[in-house]
Amino acid sequence: MDVKDIIKPENLVYSKSKVLTDTIMHYCPGCSHGVVHKLLAEVIEEMGIQDKTIGVSPVGCAVFAYKYINIDWQQAAHGRAPALATATKRLYPDKYVVAYQGDGDLASIGTAEIMHACNRGENIVVIFINNAIYGMTGGQMAPTTLLGMKTATTPYGRRADLNGYPLKITELIAQLEGTCYVTRQSVQNPGSVRKTKKAIRKALENSAQKKGTSFVEIVSACNSNWKMTPVQANKWMEENMFPFYPLGDIKDR
Amino acid sequence: MAFKGAIVVDIERCKGCSVCVVNCPTQTIALAKKVNSKGYPYSYMENPDNCTGCGNCATVCPDSVITVYRVKI
Description:
By secondary structure, chain A is α/β, with parallel strands linked by helices. Chain A is built from 11 helices and 8 strands. Chain A has a single domain, classed as Thiamin diphosphate (ThDP)-binding fold, Pyr/PP domains (Rossmann fold). In chain B, 45% of the residues are buried. Classes of the chains: A alpha/beta, B mainly beta. The interface between A and B is large, with 36 and 35 residues.
């Protein structure tokens, strides 16, 4: 059978989500942000909530998320996405509110905001991209950087006596009463992408059922700042990040 | 039941990260020797006969450039 006979509208099994805009993403080749944007758009499309979803974009690489996903957006000051999401959700209780943050944004400057938003049990969804580095500013050490990992500000590797220990903020958040669903996923292969999609869908459904805060961490690769190719970065992530940040549901009720 | 598939790559949007290449279970996809207008080598079906239309490449693609078609044979 010729390729031309296969490429027909009736044989279509997968195409770009209609919730994604046609703007070319500014992310580096192979960046995990693109996959997570796609999954969020696909879940919003499947649930039919495009006009009922409000996103809050962070400061960091994902600051331009409002250009790529065609829903209503706000853009928060650094680390303040959960505070803005709280206000949005309280003013519009029927909307789905998604705060999208990176690890520098959520686990460093915004620790107070995320802790208290989760402790209050705001009915929001938090998507947390953990790539263990500050991506946009040029690869400085983040709270989540692994011990021994080389970054722009730890050129000989992170040392516990000088830089402290990596922060497992997802485990901390799981202890808070306000959260209903806390999970850690990844997006480096087809199986993990499908699991992450289910997790994002579940988080949005929890938000509709007013069960509390849903927190989805996605362990990601930052190949540019890790100084690797996208494929090497995904492999490095599997070998080094997953032992310290084990995947799976931490809390589900 | 067997399937036959084909993919269409949006060449101008592809950034040549080759994540689809390593996640293709049938070694259908490879990066082209040519580059697009941005200078990225784009992915294409090197072995179109192998494709089963499983959609793994499109699932992992960060830039959503791959459209998948599949027929039963």
